[in-house]
Write a structure and sequence with these properties.
This protein is an alpha+beta fold and 510 residues long. The chain contains 12 helices and 24 strands. The site of flavin-adenine dinucleotide has 39 residues, from helix 1, strand 10, helix 7 and helix 12. It holds the Pfam family GMC_oxred_N.
């Protein structure tokens, strides 16, 4: 163990989506020093990362932590949860679909105990984002995706939306907003927007790349810093004069806490991890957006142009009592048969897919350790489709039926040949549910495992200022603090949490 004094004002663990925002903003003040501990390499100059349309090539590769799920008796046990191991985190390998969370999403957080995080106070943080958020460019609008939007409108009577972030919506079809630069197809990820412009000009910002944080140093209830292992295997203690800010994401933030003895006492004791702070909510409330898929063969090849092969989508509100949408679809200009192939379906040469997902799923999962060894991946039990009234599975069945209605409508119908999966013969509730669950996939949105909540909520991990309850000198800011899932894709919500965290920490040049 080295005894070199590595001392900074703030230590940010994870240079990902939220971590990039926080490190960039805090170092706007030249008198503040920040160290970022990032498990992955830099994304600078790497076209495999920076070109948005190459995102699928990153899944399961060298830059992916690639977390398995534990067996899912009601769902698909084969889902691999991609989590990026690179500067910018998941914003460097995701599809950058950019939705400002709906007012009803933030208001639901308040109702869940996150007082002060409602739609009105959160609005200002969207305007602060530095990412280049624009609608899918005209040149990237594929003819079949345009026809999907028209067909959805015709079949369902939903409005066409041009700019989903312009005003709150409950339903509608349209091209997404993306955080990208259309002229080059380059990402406007958290690292590109927040870190690249300042990397060479801020001596107060230190980024330790390919360095893994494996245990927090807590002394008498205060976070003093974090133990890390560098790329060369050197073990260091990186110390924080003011605060540690944990931004390792919904999987790795609770994982690091548990390995540091912060979590449910009985679980820690069973693994022989010395209990530093009994905090029962760590790893609970594991949320996600599960999705299913329906695939059609097309009569011929599909035009090539696209931003990232899933540029348009649809929101539906089946229950008018809901404050927001309760069913969402991505439209893929490719046959997305990875999961159906396991059941024996074939990948057509040319095809398209609709992936219905559950904006507000009711099943709740749990993340836990199976070993005291920090190298062993944590167990992710999403408990997919286990909610009592079967709402989640029924939502996907509705989704498949609605997708078929759209496929019958022109101008989309003229493109489509046979329905490859589940296949037109699968029509009953039971068989559709069985299919939808067995081929279910994730939209890759794990969240909620260190949730923010009120003082009387014993499962809350952080308070309303994102401080870990019962400890000093440490906050969490990433997708793990979400008390409930946003109806829309969560990345913009994560960036906004990052911007707000800076205000709460009291840093930045503002
Ligand atoms: C394939 C994919 C597609 C997606 N598409 C979209 C989309 O289009 N729109 C959308 O809104 N959302 C999308 N998401 C979800 C969205 O990207 C995430 O919710 C969001 O980026 C999470 O941000 P975060 O800050 O919580 O974590 P991350 O961005 O994952 O950041 C965590 C960082 O911490 C680092 N790290 C973790 N543990 C350690 C450790 N112990 N030591 C050192 N470093 C560590 C990681 O390397 C990483 O850089 C997608 C996700 C995936 C995986």
């Amino acid at each position: 163990m080295s005894h070199t004094p590595h001392l900074y004002d703030y230590v940010v663990i994870g240079g990902g989506t939220a971590g990039s925002v926080i490190a960039s903003r805090l170092t706007e003040n030249p008198d503040v020093t920040v160290a970022v501990i990032e498990g992955g390499p830099s994304d600078v100059g790497r076209d495999d990362v920076l070109i948005l349309r190459r995102w699928m090539g990153l899944l399961g590769g060298d830059l992916d932590y690639d977390y398995p799920t534990v067996e899912q008796p009601r769902g698909n046990s084969h889902i691999r949860h991609s989590r990026a191991r690179v500067l910018g985190g998941c914003s460097s390998h995701n599809t950058l679909i950019s939705f400002k969370p709906l007012p009803s999403d933030w208001d639901e957080w308040e109702q869940a105990g996150a007082k002060g995080w409602g739609a009105v106070p959160m609005e200002a943080y969207f305007a602060r984002l530095k990412n280049n958020i624009v609608s899918v460019d005209e040149k990237d609008r594929n003819a079949i995706a345009r026809d999907f939007v028209d067909a959805a409108q015709a079949a369902l009577g939903v409005p066409r939306v041009e700019g989903f972030n312009k005003k709150p919506f409950t339903e509608g079809a349209g091209f997404f907003d993306l955080a990208y630069h259309p002229e080059t197809n380059k990402r406007s990820s958290a690292s590109v927007a927040y870190l690249h412009p300042v990397l060479d000009e801020r001596p107060n910002l230190t980024i330790l790349l390919e360095t893994w944080a494996y245990r927090l140093e807590i002394t008498e209830g205060r976070a003093e810093g974090v133990h890390v292992r560098t790329k060369d295997g050197e073990e260091l203690l990186i110390r924080a004069r003011s605060e540690v800010v944990l931004c390792a994401g919904a999987v790795d933030s609770p994982r690091l806490l548990l390995h540091s003895g912060i979590g449910p006492r009985a679980d820690l004791e069973e693994l022989g991890i010395p209990v530093v702070h009994d905090l029962p909510g760590v790893g609970e409330n594991l949320l996600d957006h599960p999705e299913s898929v329906i695939v059609w063969e097309t009569h011929g090849p599909i035009p090539e142009n696209s931003a990232m092969d899933s540029d348009a989508g649809l929101f539906v509100r089946r229950d008018p009592e809901n404050p927001g949408p309760d069913l969402m679809f991505h439209f893929y200009q490719i046959p997305f048969t990875d999961n159906p192939e396991r059941l024996g379906y074939e990948r057509p040469r040319h095809g398209v897919s609709m992936t219905p997902n559950i904006p507000k799923p009711k099943s709740r999962g749990r993340l836990y350790l199976t070993s005291a060894d920090p190298e062993v991946k944590p167990a992710l039990d999403f408990r997919y489709f286990t909610d009592e009234d079967d709402y989640d599975a029924r939502t996907l069945v509705d989704g498949i039926r609605i997708a078929r209605e759209i496929a019958k409508a022109e101008p989309l119908a003229g493109w489509l040949g046979r329905e490859v999966c589940p296949g037109p013969e699968i029509t009953g509730d039971e068989e559709l549910s069985e299919y939808a669950r067995k081929v279910a996939h994730t939209v890759y949105h794990p969240a909620g495992t260190c949730k923010m909540g009120a003082a009387d909520d014993e499962l809350a991990v952080v308070d309303l200022e994102l401080r870990i309850r019962g400890l000093e000198g440490i906050r969490i800011a990433d997708a793990s603090v979400f008390p409930t899932m946003t109806a829309v894709n969560p990345m913009i919500g994560v960036l906004m949490v990052g911007e707000r965290a800076v205000d709460l920490i009291g840093g930045g040049a503002r």
